[in-house]
Amino acid sequence: MDINFIYQEYQEDLRRFIIKRVANREDMEDVLQEVLIKIQNNLATIKDEGKVAAWIRRIARNQIIDFYRSRRATERLDDNIPDVADGAENHNKEISICIRNIIGNLPAKYQEAIKLTTYQGLSQQQVAQRLGLSTSGAKSRVQRSRAMIKKMLLRCCQLEFDRMGNIIEYRQKGKTKYC
């Protein structure tokens, strides 16, 4: 079995698998190239040719995870960006404003922790250093912040998500001080 056979046999399935999980075509092509490189570099390790499809899918899944991890570590969000995600629809903009209002109403220590991780892109270890906390203390503070945001958001909004975590349906339950 060689890389050309695998490419011809699995290329379209791989493209469909990746594009369902990666938002834009350029990123999908980048992930696909990385998957093909990993397949080529590890092709000699495959022992059971009957499990090639599952092996390829596992490589693709791991590469998609690596793709999102690398983006999370390098992307910085400015406090003035109203969108939740690139290409966000109007309801995402409304939710984004609501979330910013919720964050603004958190106790100061939780507000600071969530802003440092979410908007400034700091790791929880960096947050710990900046705030003079242990790493587990910073992690706990960020998790509590997220839990508070989720609780407040679910009080005022009904949300439905797709399997990628994107909001596909949004309804306000009523007027609140956040939304």
TrEMBL record:
Q: Which GO terms describe its biological process?
A: DNA-templated transcription initiation
Q: Which UniProt keywords apply?
A: Sigma factor, Transcription, Transcription regulation
- RNA polymerase sigma-70 region domain ranges (all copies): 6-73
Coiled-coil annotated residue ranges, if any: none
Domain (RNA polymerase sigma factor 70 region 4 type): give its ranges. 98-148
- The keyword Transcription regulation appears for this protein: yes
Q: Which Pfam families match?
A: Sigma70_r2 (PF04542), Sigma70_r4_2 (PF08281)
GO MF terms, alphabetically ordered: DNA binding; sigma factor activity
Do you know which InterPro entries this protein is assigned to? RNA_pol_sigma-70-like, RNA_pol_sigma-70_dom, RNA_pol_sigma-Z, RNA_pol_sigma70_r2, RNA_pol_sigma70_r4_t2, RNA_pol_sigma_r2, RNA_pol_sigma_r3/r4-like, WH-like_DNA-bd_sf
Name the protein family: Belongs to the sigma-70 factor family. ECF subfamily.
PANTHER family per the record? RNA POLYMERASE ECF-TYPE SIGMA FACTO, RNA POLYMERASE SIGMA FACTOR SIGZ
Q: What is this protein called?
A: RNA polymerase sigma factor SigZ
Source lineage: Bacteria, Bacillati, Bacillota, Negativicutes, Veillonellales
